[in-house]
Amino acid sequence: MNTCFDKIKEDIDLIKNLSVFKNEFNIENISILLVNKNKVFFIEELCSNNNSINSKFPSTLDNNNLISLACEKNKPIYFYEENDIIYPLNKNFVEELCLPIKLEQNKDITVCIYFGFIKKTKNIQALLSSFLDRFNIFEIYSYVYSKYIQLSETEKIKKLLMLLEDIIETHHPSMRLHGFNVAFWATEIGKKLNFSKDELEKIYLAALFHDIGKLRIPESIINKQGPLANEEYEEVKKHVEFSYIITKEFFEDLYPEIPLWVRAHHEMYDGSGYPFGLKGNEIPLVSRILKVADVIDVLYSPRSYKKNLPIDKIITELKNCSGKDFDPSVVEAALNVIDEKIILPMDILKLKSGQILPANLSLRTYNEIFNLEGYFSNNDEKYYFKSTNTIKTSKDLWNLVSASLVVEILNSIYEYEVNALPLDENTYQITEIRPLERKSYVSILWDLDGNLILQDNKSINIKVKKLSADDLLFVNGDNSNLTINLNNLYKIKLKF
Ligand SMILES: [Fe+2]
Ligand SMILES: [Fe+2]
User: Fold this and answer.
1) Do 61 and 68 touch, CB atoms closer than 8 A?
2) CA 348 – ligand 2 centroid, Å
């Protein structure tokens, strides 16, 4: 009899064998995709970061590329550099091969196995035969198909959550974004504890939904400002059972562990938690992670009734409760995450003399806003901004209304209100540096890929670095020239 563990082992073997094949034949990229009508789903991609095709691939098949040709003709399609009919999916590749698999009973769906090469292959025919000898393409098809079903089911569930977020915002404002923030911390901690990509996806989903049961607790209790009475606290505790029941309905067939993890997210390491008073390793590891991630967000996020706690206090709290409320190994991983992800805004600008940091200076006058690229530096305890571009109408700059300095470091953006005194056409002395209020920036939580859709429907890859109630800040990921007309409206697609 086959068990679900046999299935997991087969999946791992397939990826391992693909990776061996990839190295043996010097293949830069092996991707497995599923095309349903003209929608494309990436199921696996084995490659180095620079040579991905997934990051640039459109989600619908509208061009004449190798994948669309293979699906249309239902036979292997081979592309080589001198062939100018189609463009390579990655411009570094000199040869590409796509092998489509279609089943008679499911004609809308094609599973494609894609190979990309940066060096010419001696014999592509031999490579293809050797692949077909070693791999059972029906096994690959069934692996890909089951992953696709999982993907589309979880997509639906995530969409449902987006709809629920509106209800949460209206009725339980204190819970707003809590699931997303906990998901961020929990997956970062999971990465530190070496969870696989698939397991991280499950942790992410569990975290998103861990408090969904609070929707069934009266608003007057959830939104109460100040301490809860005993009977109110008993009422709040019921949310874990409600979360369990709701996530069981959503995930039972797909990921049966998720409801169990969710139910145990208020268990304490020393056995003093609820609902069962489980202790130590009796509590699932993911629940122990959720517990820590949950507390970090509750302490770190400002609520209507409290300010957010400074990060050093959160670190002390985690250390004090390690071994009591929290699993010490999870706390250790969380402290590493905090160390890497959170830097106190003022510490960033405490440069040693002579050090510089890339920065942008935004100057607002009565008439215009000027954005200067350049760097921030410390010279003998005086701070300067030197721009690498100059402004022609510089006399206007003596009438500054306000100035802000933006620094990008470790994939995060930090923004400060400053006083900027022009010394010459490209040097400003910077004084009175004040980090912007946290409500205006949420930099650590955002490092999203996206597309900016231009007027002519061309799209440009962007990285969103900051998203707040008032504004959105992105960097151009294509390194191409980009001119934006501030009078136009643009669409931005974000990939979560
Ligand atoms: Fe909770
Ligand atoms: Fe929570």
Assistant:
1) yes
2) 30
Ligand nearest to the CA of 299: 2
Does one domain contain both 142 and 210? no
Alpha carbon of 106 to ligand 1 centroid (Å): 43
Q: How many Å lie between the centroid of ligand 2 and the Cα of residue 150? A: 25
Nearest ligand to the CA of 296 is 2
Whether residue 166 is contained in a domain is answered as: no
Structure tokens at 434: 């004040």
Task: Check if the beta carbon of residue 466 is closer than 8 Å to that of residue 442.
Answer: yes
The bound ligand whose nearest atom lies closest to the alpha carbon of 181 is 2
Question: Residue 154 domain-assigned?
Answer: no
Residue 186 shares a structural domain with residue 306: yes
Kindly state whether residue 176 falls inside one of the protein's structural domains: yes
Based on the domain organization, do 205 and 303 belong to the same domain?
yes
- How far does the centroid of ligand 1 lie from the alpha carbon of residue 154, in Å? 22
Ligand closest to the CA atom of residue 175: 2
Nearest 10 degrees: Cα torsion 146, 147, 152, 157: 100
DSSP 309: P
The answer on 140 and 18 residing in a single domain is yes
From residue 463, give the alpha-carbon distance in Å to each of 70, 88, 334, 447, 480: 32, 24, 25, 6, 14
Q: What is the pLDDT of residue 9?
A: 55
Domain shared by 266 and 362, yes or no: no
* Ligand lying nearest the CA atom of residue 177: 2
**15 and 48 both lie in a single domain:** yes
pLDDT tens readout for residues 30-86: 999 999 887 888 888 898 767 888 766 666 666 667 888 888 889 888 887 666 667
Same domain, 249 and 181: yes
Ligand closest to Cα of 262 equals 1
Say which ligand is closest to the CA of 207. Answer: 2
- Domain containing 25 — which CATH number? 3.30.450.40
Distance 172 CA to ligand 2 centre (A): 13
Residues 320 and 179 in one domain: yes
Task: Tell me the ligand closest to 264's alpha carbon.
Answer: 1
Q: How far is ligand 2, taken at its centre, from the CA of residue 210, in Å?
A: 6
- pLDDT value for 3: 44
Q: 430: left (phi > 0), else alpha (psi -120 to 50), else beta?
A: beta
The pLDDT of residue 10 is: 59
- Note the pLDDT of residue 152: 84
- What pLDDT, on the 0 to 100 scale, is given for residue 327? 98
Q: Which residues of the chain have pLDDT under 50?
A: 1-5, 410-411, 438-445
- Is residue 400 domain-resident? yes
How much distance in Å is there from the Cα of 211 to the middle of ligand 1?
5
Give the separation between CA 21 and CA 17, rounded to whole angstroms.
Answer: 6
Q: What is the pLDDT of residue 39?
A: 83
CATH of the domain at 361: 2.30.110.10
Q: How far apart are CA 209 and CA 244, in angstroms?
A: 9
- From the CA of 217, the nearest ligand is 1
Distance from the CA of 265 to the center of ligand 1, in angstroms? 7
What is the count of structural domains for the chain? 4
Of 312, 341, 370, at which residue does a domain stop? 341
- Domain limits for position 356: 347-436
